[in-house]
Structure formats: C-alpha cells, structure tokens
Amino acid sequence: MLILRRTDVTDVLSGREAEIIDLVADTYRLHDEGRTSLPHSTFLRFPEEHHSRDRIIGLPAYRGGDRPVAGMKWIASFPGNVAAGSERASAAIVLNSLENGRPVAFVEGAVISAKRTAASAALAAAELTAGRPPASVLLIGCGVINLEILRFLAVALPGLREAALYDTDPARAEAFVGRCAEAAPGVKAHPVTDPAAALGGHRLVSLATTAATPHMDLAACGPDTTVLHVSLRDLTPEAILGAVNVVDDADHVCRERTSLDLAQRITGDRDFVAAPIGALLRGTAVLRREPGRPVVYSPFGLGVLDVALAEFVREQAGTRGLGVRVDDFLPV
C-alpha cells in the first residue's frame, strides 16, 4: 500500500494545471462514450441538529480506456470548519488494483478534489466562451475552490485580466485579494460589495459557496453571461429554468436537492438540460446560446475525475519516490 500525503499530492500537481485540464477533458470524453462506471454517490448525513449542514459523501468510480483505474473518494463537508479557521472539506481516495481488486494506494483527496473541480470549471469556461472569451470573472465565495478555479482559469483563458471578489463576509473578500495575487499573478483581483451590480459587469461568474438552499437569481446578468454553478445550490430553480444548462451528468446532478433537482421537481423532466460537457467536447452536441438567457454549467463533480487524477498522482509519485509504502498492510 502506498500512502500519499497532502505534501506528496501538492508536490506532484503544482504547476500542472494544463495537464490536469487535459486529463479532465479526456475523462469527460470517455464518460460520454460510456466507458466509465459511476454508481450514484452515497450521502452520509447525521440525525443531530448541530450536524444538520454536515455530510460525508462516498463516490465510487471506474475509468476505462487505455489507462483504466478504479477506486473511491470519501469526502467530508463540514461548513462550520470555516469559522473555526480550518478547511470545510477533507477527503481520502482509495485506488484498487484491476488485477486482483486489492487496494494499492491511499491518497489525500482534498487537494485532488479541489483541483479536479477547478479544472472542470476552467475547461467548461473555455469551451462555453470559445467564440468570445472573457477578460474578467466574478468570483462569488472566497474560499479554497474559487481560489483554485481562478488559478485554472488563468491557464484556460490566457486573456483573463480581472477578478472581482464577493463574499458575504467583506473581510474575507479583502483577505482573498492577496491569495489571488499568488495563484494568478497576471489577474488583478479586487473586492466588490454589490453582487447585483457585479453580475451585470462580468460575462463570466463562478459560484463556489457553502449555500445549502437557493438564494439568488440571474436577473442582473448581462445577455452573454456564463455561470459556473460549482456549488450547485445557489441558484433558484426558476433561474435554472431560464438558463441554457450544461451539466457533467444529468443523472448525478439532478439529485439531493440541488438547484437542478428542484427545477426537475417543478417540470417533471430534464428537458431544461441542453447538453453534457462530454458531448460538447466530443462534438456530438452543439451548444446554441439564446438571446437573453445565460449559460449555466452545473457539474456534480464526478468521482471518476478524482480517481483518474489520483491515479496520475500515484504514477508520478512512484517515479519520484514520494509517499510512504506500507508493505504489510495486507497479508502476503
């Protein structure tokens, strides 16, 4: 068993944003071709009121193709951690041998989860704005995920020059400026206090908050806005129904009271989903923007991305001698 710590994962992935985006794109194509296996995620919730916002999610996955891999991500989301000064999410990924099924690696998963989420968002931003790439982005939610999204956007959209920052805690947005300067030195970041005005001033918006229920619409957006709805529960179902919607997988994202799940409950179908990102990347679907309707990308965050990136980390760590090897983890 190879145990890869956060420092190992960070060492492998730092500065490799372009490679990670390519890996995510390849995995989406395989998924659209039907060459993955993705059971529905398992949500572990707790009966106590003080745990009402907390959850732990299990995401088993298999990616086929030339470099097959199987495993599972186990990720905890405890929003109260943020106020206590620690990260909201923590995760671990187990990779299994496809020869005998035995676990072969135990990988710190929070870094992988954040980077595959950001790569997915940046990939979609580049794909959905290909005809007219934006020079600025509005980041709503000043946390780990939007920081990584900015880092990856700076690679996927080389013309990006400005990032407006909004958070319900203004001090958090102010402090976020310095972190953005480190993550994307070529992008000038600044806080804003009026989210409605900011929505109208930026054609690209990234929503990465801890919202548990919808709290905003897109009425203030301009006519050519692309929204990266990464946290999945910010937008009202009416906003979803008024948008052109792109997803990673409709079966996965239309569950667990996401904004799209609530929209589905209103309409009784998923006809409001225009296309999956994998089909757009493969060219088997074409996205048609409609005047006055924003494009919303809502990625559930497929576990197959985590195991694919974890396998990449495992391979790279092996060649560099990183990690801790426990030879007697299983009986010989």
Structural write-up:
The chain is α/β, with parallel strands linked by helices. The chain has two domains: 2-112 and 303-325, ornithine cyclodeaminase, domain 1, CATH 3.30.1780; 131-298, Rossmann fold (3-Layer(aba) Sandwich). 37% of the residues lie in helices and 23% in strands. Strands 1, 2, 3, 4, 5, 6, 7 and 16 form an eight-stranded mixed sheet that branches. A hairpin with a 6-residue loop joins strand 6 and strand 7 (103-108). Helix 2 (17-32) packs across helix 4 (110-128) and helix 5 (144-156) packs parallel to helix 6 (170-183). The chain starts with a strand and ends in a 7-residue tail after the last strand. The mean pLDDT is 96.
